[in-house]
Design goal:
This protein is mainly α. It has 2 helices and no strands.
């Protein structure tokens, strides 16, 4: 019983100050600032929209051709 109380007290006494220190450090990092991202320009944006081309078969048509 005495060992559990001592162990718990030692853990609380060491982890609490270090967790507060870590919290202050992480809060000071640039990534935690709301304005860390600048607005993306049009050159930075990539449009990943895929369009169907008339001369190429669709995935369903390819699957049907493989089954035959």
């Amino acid at each position: 019983m005495l060992g559990a109380v001592f162990s718990g007290g030692l853990t609380l006494g060491t982890f609490l100050p270090m967790s507060k220190r870590l919290q202050r450090h992480l809060a000071s990092l640039e990534l935690t600032k709301p304005d860390h991202r600048s607005a993306a320009s049009d050159a930075d944006v990539i449009d990943l929209e895929v369009t169907h081309q008339e001369d190429q078969p669709t995935a369903a048509e390819n699957a049907g051709a493989q089954e035959s």
